[in-house]
Amino acid sequence: MQNQLGSDALPPKTCTIDRLITVKSDIEKVLSGQKTATRRNGRYADVGEIMTLEGHKFVIDKVYSQSLGEVTDDHAKQEGYSNVEEYKQSILSIHPGMPWLPQMRVWVHEFSRGKEK
After folding, report:
1. Could you give the C-alpha distances from 55 to 23, 31, 42, 89, 97, in angstroms and in order?
2. H or E element, residue 90
3. Tens-of-pLDDT digits for all 117 residues of the chain?
4. Could you identify which of 49, 87, 111, 114 might form a hypothetical disulfide with 81, taking C-beta atoms 3.0 to 4.6 angstroms apart as the criterion?
5. Which residues lie below 8 Å from residue 8, measured CB to CB, with a gap of 6+?
6. How far apart are CA 99 and CA 86, in angstroms?
7. In this structure, are strands 37-40 and 105-113 parallel, antiparallel, or unpaired?
8. Where are the domains of the chain?
């Protein structure tokens, strides 16, 4: 079950929004519209906060906690992958030695393209 909290009930951020998406291939997926969410082990953004990637603005729409065991193929598609297994293998290749534990909790940051000026 997803834990959708109001922004005032969220714990403090553990990092800054400029560190939310840094991998070049992920940035390209966001810019092309293939990636509309990212999962991190900490909370990097607040709802309504603006992420800027290569001059394009993206608004954080939702921030919530989720276990890896709750990740579905639809969630993997939000991340820019075909299915959970493809997403899992990508994450494990980025973080060698990290186990994929179904009970491990991550922070989901969902976003959409902001209005360009």
Report:
1. 16, 10, 25, 30, 34
2. helix 84-94
3. 344 444 458 999 999 999 999 999 999 999 999 999 999 999 999 999 999 999 999 999 999 999 999 999 999 999 999 999 999 999 999 889 999 999 999 999 999 998 765
4. 87
5. none
6. 15
7. antiparallel
8. 17-113
What letter would DSSP give residue 81? -
pLDDT at 8: 58
Token digits for 101?
């534990």
Whether residue 14 contacts residue 42, with contact meaning beta carbons closer than 8 Å, is answered with yes
Tokens of 75: 């969630």
CB atoms within 10 A of CB 18: 12
* Widest pairwise Cα distance in the chain: 43
Amino acid at 47: V
Under 8 Å CB-to-CB from 59, ≥6 apart: which residues? 48, 49, 50, 51, 111, 112, 113, 114
Question: Which residue's entry shows tokens 């929004």?
Answer: 17
CB atoms within 10 A of CB 34: 14
